[in-house]
Predict the structure.
Amino acid sequence: MLKHLLASLSLIAVAGFGCRSFPLSPSTAPAETEQSTGYQNSQYGFGFDYPKSMDVHNRTDETRATDYLGMNVDFFVSLRDIVMDTKPTTIAYFYAVTPAITADGFKISLEATNPNGAVKVTNVEDVTVNGIAMKKVTSTTEMKQDKTHYLFDTNGSTIIVSVFLNQESAFEGVLPSFQFE
């Protein structure tokens, strides 16, 4: 009888250990369960929240004006994960195009960057986040991976959020917090 009791207790202990909940590391915990901080951009009139495991890197005035997809843009900020690797990992770049452009104009510019045809827009979807009407643009890359961009208009400009490859899940934790000021 004692052998059966010890065997049963051992089985329960082993099974119970497998059910133990381990805390998520800061880089894998969902944004909504972490403490977050906010980013506000008064120039373009929008903001968003991001987890403490990320930071917003503001571009210096000297590096903001740049060419992106053949367009003159204001490359104003990048969102980075600061705990995933030994150095910050970029999640997304934020550009502003003035005057505003359409999703079709963006598609033409994006596809023109690769004359061999490897870069193609495969989907344009309307999404609304906290009252912000956005275009979610999915394209192929030369590496045969899908890439996502979000476009929305504010203050006479189109904001282009270019999500880095393999960073979609990290950005999806931030996207629901986007809001106009």
User: Anything to note?
Assistant: Residues 1-32 have pLDDT under 50 and may be disordered. The longest helix spans residues 2-18.
